[in-house]
């Protein structure tokens, strides 16, 4: 089992969550579509050669986003990450996945 955490603008939140749930994320016991989410602000500066969804190259940006955490079974991880990247508006979504044990 893995814990997956990512950040997404509110405009694409439901689209990305739907895609990862279809790919197998968010299943715990007799439940599915499980996640935890909270709003915050993400800061970044697009560098030369990047193609930002918002913002300008070389200029510091701060945008409201939602942090989403969920769980993913080992056999679904690649498909879930692929679904996340395919539906996320950023060229490089911020995400992390690490192994966990459900007790």
UniProtKB/TrEMBL annotation:
Taxonomic superkingdom: Bacteria
InterPro entries: DUF34/NIF3_sf, N-reg_PII/ATP_PRibTrfase_C
PANTHER family: NGG1P INTERACTING FACTOR NIF3, PTHR41774
Name of the protein in its database record: YqfO family protein
Annotated organism of origin: Kistimonas scapharcae
């Amino acid at each position: 089992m893995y814990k997956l955490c990512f950040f997404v603008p509110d405009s694409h939140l439901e689209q990305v969550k739907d895609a990862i749930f279809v790919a197998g994320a968010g299943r715990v016991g007799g439940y599915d579509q499980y996640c935890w989410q909270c709003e915050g602000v993400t800061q970044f500066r697009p560098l030369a050669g990047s193609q930002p969804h918002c913002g300008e190259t070389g200029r510091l940006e701060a945008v409201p986003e939602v942090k989403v955490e969920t769980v993913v079974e080992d056999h679904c991880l690649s498909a879930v990450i692929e679904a996340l990247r395919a539906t996320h508006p950023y060229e490089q979504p911020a995400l992390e996945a690490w192994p966990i044990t459900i007790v």
